[in-house]
Amino acid sequence: MCRWLAYSGTPVLLDTILYKPAHSLIDQSLHARMGVETTNGDGFGIGWYTQTSGIDTPAVMRDVGPAWNNRNLREIAQHVTSPLFFAHIRASTGTAVQQTNCHPFRHGRWLWMHNGSIAGFHEMRRELCVAVEPSLFPGMEGTTDSEVMFYLALTLGLEEDPPGAVARMVGLVERTGRAHGVENPMQMTVAVTDGESLWAFRYASGGGARSLYYSTRVDSLRALHPDVSFLQELSDETRLVVSEPLGDLPGAWNEVPEHSYGVVRPGDDHLRPFVPAA
Length: 278
What we know:
The protein has a domain at 3-115 and 190-269: 4-Layer Sandwich (Glutamine Phosphoribosylpyrophosphate, subunit 1, domain 1). It has 8 helices and 13 strands. It has helices spanning 14-18, 25-31, 71-77, 121-130, 145-155, 162-179, 218-224, 229-232; strands at residues 3-13, 44-49, 59-63, 81-89, 105-107, 110-118, 186-193, 198-204, 213-215, 239-242, 253-255, 260-264, 270-273. It has a 7-stranded antiparallel sheet. A 6-stranded antiparallel sheet has the order 5-6-7-8-12-13. α4 (121-130) crosses α6 and α5 crosses α6. The chain starts with a strand and ends in a 5-residue tail after the last strand. InterPro entries: EgtC-like, Gamma-glu_amide_hydrolase, GATase_2_dom, Ntn_hydrolases_N. It comes from Streptomyces katrae.
């Protein structure tokens, strides 16, 4: 499968999160502890928002090589500061290793990334693609189940109601899968953002969803670890959502419950149950 992280909070250099932690996402590209594969070398991508006036869409950089030795990624990470960014390292589940299949995917202000798979996707791919709104369909460039999930969610109201749209998307995939004889088609952790709020989902049709964690409130971490200087530089609103913890700092990480989703936004973080729509 894949590994990913989503950051929201005090603007930081991407390098601070992508490279410096003991078990950073770059380290996970070679030494993942909780993924299906130890190595995630089938491409990578980053998407980030800037505070530049007049720029409404996030920047995206994707490549097909492994993240651990990409000089362009290292260069960007050492010079780009962002208050909200996504990063993803890919382990293909059968679709081609090409730039258009690397995450995150972008539509307007929106970014989307996924870890997991749709079981039986190749058999139901045409049916799912036909369900995408015709005006959105030209935006799909790749061949992954992840991108189809994104465009189905957009079709089903993502821009107005992200949790509801993802629930409707999963419900559609499950109904389609079962019509094709696949009892438990959906396996996912998903992150999606409009540049202001961040939603993260953990769900699997038959249980056993892929790992997902969120960081403890920064003010609580400062109380636990007053000697950690990095925490002094972050606002109380800063949050990380990750496929697996970036380090072993006691009290820093909390597992997202299965069949739930979380919302990260200034002053209003919460976890709620996730139920696919009938």
